[in-house]
Design goal:
Rossmann fold; 11 helices; 39% helix; binds adenosine-5'-triphosphate; binds magnesium ion
Length: 309
């Protein structure tokens, strides 16, 4: 089943309207960070939840946006019930979770009875001057509608948890060109190679990339005095050097993170004294700092909007 199709050429002409609507909705949000990855299962959602919780613990206001439309997981990881049967509206509110975190998933903003991927871009984006409508690209349409119409309000940070892969990353970049990207990967060579392609793509689009997070680098067992490698490692350094980006952090594997995620509990609260929790708290602080610095040095409209010319 092919669901993440490219925008048709006509769609590009409509994109600036969508970008402008989304930009207006993000007006009271100081900075946006997208956690993305070339491959699935590397820890984007787990980190999004933990980073947001760390920010909330230090008094920041964060909104989480689950852009993994086919398989949203932030609600469950935060122990929230996914609201059902909310009416489809132009101005849905994010749901509020632990520590005052506000969370947007398609289940919050869209009536579940509407088949998610049957939405077409024509429902989001106006027809072009010659009257043609873009072909259906359910992912882009749903993402666009939700980003534009959910009442995101004021916040220090919007954290977008992307679906895995270049396609989803590309759609988010088109809609939120000023977002700051963090690329997550595990250490194995094939993952590092895929990550390198994603970094090359982001560079070609002049996206703001804060850096890489290498996750699951080793196993930190309670009785061990050293972190033991979990996967073949070393390839990510070459990837980072080739792409000219920094490795922001190298996080160990700790099964208690997966267990708390499954239970809907906050790892950084329950296991605040673990090396992983301490690293994530430090990572959250440095991400916030560098996103705000980047935004302060780059004007909001410094990105080319596809189709603007
Ligand atoms: N450092 C870690 N230690 C232990 N478990 C981890 C770690 N990072 C992530 N996990 C667990 O690994 C699993 C996959 O993580 P997660 O769902 O966050 O990946 P993802 O990149 O969002 O995946 P997808 O691309 O499918 O959305 C989850 O069960 C999560 O709790
Ligand atoms: Mg995920």
């Amino acid at each position: 089943m092919s669901i993440f199709t490219d925008f048709e050429p006509d769609t590009a002409a409509c994109l600036p309207d969508a970008v402008a609507q989304i930009r207006a909705n993000l007006e009271a949000i100081k900075s946006t960070i997208v956690l993305t990855s070339a491959r699935g299962g590397v820890g984007k959602s787990a980190l999004t939840v933990s980073i947001a919780a760390a920010l909330a613990q230090s008094g920041r206001k964060a909104v989480l946006f689950d852009a993994d439309l086919n398989s949203p997981s932030l609600h469950a990881m935060l122990g929230m019930k996914t609201p059902r049967r909310l009416p489809l509206s132009d101005a849905a509110d994010p749901a509020t979770g632990p520590l005052g975190l506000r969370v947007v998933t398609v289940n919050v903003a869209l009536e579940p009875a509407i088949p998610l991927l049957n939405l077409s871009d024509a429902e989001i984006l106006p027809a072009t001057e010659n009257g043609s409508r873009p072909a259906s690209t359910g992912y882009a349409a749903t993402l666009s509608r939700t980003l534009a119409h959910t009442r995101l309000g004021a916040a220090d940070l919007l954290l977008i948890d992307a679906a895995p892969g270049l396609e989803a990353c590309s759609r988010i970049l088109e809609l939120v060109p000023e977002a700051n990207f963090v690329v997550v990967s595990h250490p194995a060579r094939l993952a590092a190679q895929a990550t390198q392609r994603m970094l090359e793509f982001l560079a070609s689009k002049r996206a703001r990339v804060l850096g890489l997070v290498e996750n699951m680098v080793g196993f930190n067992c309670d009785g061990c005095h050293a972190v033991r490698p979990l996967l073949p490692h070393g390839a990510m350094i070459a990837t980072a050097v080739a792409a000219g980006v920094s490795i922001l952090d190298r996080l160990p594997f700790d099964p208690r993170l997966a267990e708390t995620n499954d239970r809907g509990a906050l790892f950084i609260r329950e296991y605040a004294d673990t090396p992983l929790a301490k690293q994530i708290v430090g990572l959250a602080q440095s991400l916030e700092r560098s996103a705000l610095t980047r935004d302060a040095t780059a004007p909001r409209d410094d990105r080319e909007v596809p189709g603007a010319n």
